[in-house]
Amino acid sequence: MKEVDTATLARAWESGAAVLDVREDYEYAEAHVPRATWIPLGELPARVAEIPSGEIVYVICASGNRSKHGAQIVEAAGREAVSVAGGTSAWLRAGHPVERGLAA
After folding, report:
1. Rhodanese domain: which residues (predicted)?
2. How far apart are CA 72 and CA 94, in angstroms?
C-alpha cells in the first residue's frame, strides 16, 4: 500500500482525483477535502462498490492511520488506492481548501 503526502493529494485533487474520507461523521462535518466521498471506515467493506474504479483513490482520515487500513480495503476490492500521510490535519495545516458539514 502506497502513501502520499498532502502536496501530492492537492495536485491530484486539482485534477479531479477521487478522494475517500473514512472518518466518523463528527470529524467529517468539522472539515473535509471538498468533493470527498465520505464512507466511515467501519462501513467501508460493505460499501466499497460505491468507490470509483479505474482511477487512483486517495484515502484520507484525520492523521493517516485509518486511511492506511481504508486503502488496504479498497485495494483488496480490486481498486487502486493510496493513503494520505498526515490526513486532514496535514491538509488543514497546509492551508488547502475545506468544506464543512455533512454530505446531503
Report:
1. 16-100
2. 26
Return the H-helix or E-strand segment holding 93.
Answer: helix 87-93
Q: Read off the C-alpha cell for 35.
A: 468533493
Cβ proximity of 58 and 36 under 8 Å: no
Q: Model-level pTM greater than 0.90?
A: yes
Q: 3-state DSSP call for residue 95? A: coil
If you count them, how many residues does the chain have? 104
Indicate whether 104 belongs to any domain. Answer: no
CATH number at residue 30: 3.40.250.10
- Cα Rg, the chain, nearest whole Å: 12
CA 74 distance to own-chain centroid: 11
Judge whether 82 and 19 are in contact, CB under 8 Å.
no
